[in-house]
Amino acid sequence: MALSATIYKADLGVADIDRGYYGQHNLTIACHPSETTARMMLRVLAFACHADPDLKFGRGVSADDEPDLWLVQPDGRISLWVELGQPDERDLRKASARADQVWLYTYGGRSVDPWWKKMQSAAAKLDNLTIVNIPSETMAALDGLTARTMKLDCTILEGSIQLSDGQQQLELKPEFLQRSN
What we know:
Blueprint: E1 6-16, E2 21-31, H1 37-49, E3 56-57, E4 69-72, E5 78-84, H2 89-98, E6 99-106, H3 112-124, E7 129-133, H4 136-144, E8 149-157, E9 160-164, E10 169-172, E11 175-178
Parallel strand pairs: 1-8, 5-6, 6-7
Antiparallel strand pairs: 1-2, 3-4, 4-5, 7-11, 8-9, 9-10
Helix pairs in contact: 1-4
InterPro entries: Restrct_endonuc-II-like (IPR011335), YaeQ (IPR009822), YaeQ_sf (IPR038590)
Organism: Parachitinimonas caeni
Protein name: YaeQ family protein
């Protein structure tokens, strides 16, 4: 018998002062059995960083043709494609061809350096690709915010991100490996 996803709920308040975006989002997040809660929380953080009323979660880790998050315009154009992890060059090229902007959030501690060394020249050719590395300590702190029902507030100001559940507050400054042109 196949394991089913675990459902989490998040009431996410976003104050992105840098973009002038303020919104409240009631999220239902399916955590696939093969996905860690830290990775799921990174999806929530990425949602907060790109919050928009039309931003949607993809079908998850088992869907190769969809990103972790995406923003599809009414005409079908994909304006934003957000991936997590360390995809191969082919997947990054495909995403860059399909979307106006591609954001990749890498994580994995020491495994990021060899991946980036291998990918750097290929990634540099993709001018709509931004890559942000999330350190292991931040992933652990994100995991510490996990609850089946969450009330989270995210404030983004001058590139700094604060995520709080009312008890704990996580502050991070994104580590950009590459910024889109």
